[in-house]
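Service request form, structural biology core

Requester: graduate student, group of Dr. S.
Request type: structure prediction, single chain
Budget code: on file
Notes: please return the result as structure tokens.

Sequence provided:
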Amino acid sequence: MCGRYLLHRPNAEIAAYFDVGGPVPNHGPSYNIAPTQASLVVRHNPQDGQRHLDALQWGLVPYWSKDAKGGARMINARADGVAQKPAFREAFRRRRCLVPMDGFYEWKAMEGRRQPYLATMADGSPMAAAGLWEGWKAEDGSWLRTYSIITTDAAGRQALLHHRMPVLLPRAAWPAWLGEREAAPEALQALLTPLDDALLAFRPVHPRVGKVSENDPALLEPYADAPPIEGLMTDAPG
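Core staff response, request fulfilled:
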């Protein structure tokens, strides 16, 4: 699963990396993004043909929901059921997005405690997680726009930490996923696989990342007191 992640680089840099057009939102960095909080997503607008960077709430609320309470339970969508599950199938067809990340956290139970690890791209570039977004209209007429991150079976060293991981899409897959290029459901489903393990890096971080209130750059520093995991590379860039 993916239950915590970070995005701290400047918004203008994110917009440039994802070839975003239009205004860039004024959204602050976060080193510890948690469910129900807002973060940036990349969506394609067919009306102007551009990609847009917008702040949405993490935890998808289907358009047909009676209320928004269930969003906190829908932070992830399993790749193997995303095209059929009622909560996600319409968004899979029409409202796909990219979720920029600078890394995501995962916890490993070991020696009587849960040790968090940070996964990043080995070259320090942003991650592009496959996401779905949805709009939900409240009784007062206001709109709530939310998103979910798609996960798949973990592979390689990620499997040493958890059996699930976010789907991280290479640049070549972005046009099809965003709907800029026509793609059959089968082709979209084929994109939802683990990223090449060689492209990822891992390192242990301080256990205080488990508290949502903890949110500062020091969370990224390697944690020397973590028990070692054989075969897990821990020299990721900051």
